[in-house]
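Bumping with the actual sequence this time:
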Amino acid sequence: MKNSQVNTISMVSEISLRYNPKVKASDMKTVHSSKDAYTIFKGHWDDGLIGFLEEFKILLLKRSHKVIGIYQVSLGGVSGTVVDAKIIFAAALLSHASAIILCHNHPSGTLSPSQQDIQLTKQLKEAGRVLNIEILDHLIITSDSYYSFGDEGLL
């Protein structure tokens, strides 16, 4: 190989993965119910956006259901947002999460899941099964209430 080819071949990007916990384990909140999850998500949602733009977030949990953190997966438009499983599970793997609670808002104010919501939940649950990361619930939230896939038997 010529010297210039070696230099070109050896040029690759460096990947850096970071997780910086800011809460001591003893201070982590524990999720016992869908209402607990809703309260945490609602506290991390911009009240000005909840009825305006659709967002998708995940709650990352330890095996004991202690909250590792919350992660915004996407911010979309009035009627939808893009949810990429690779982004969700990259965050889960990076934080060493054992479980995830999915959440998105419906700016329309309706709490009923769409067919896309149901299909996405099934796909993410299957991906989580393969990675041994449990999907505990999927919440649809509005400014004053929520719908739980888990409570309604859709998981």
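The tokens above came from a reply further down the thread. Strands lie at 55-61, 67-75, 99-105, 134-141, 146-148.
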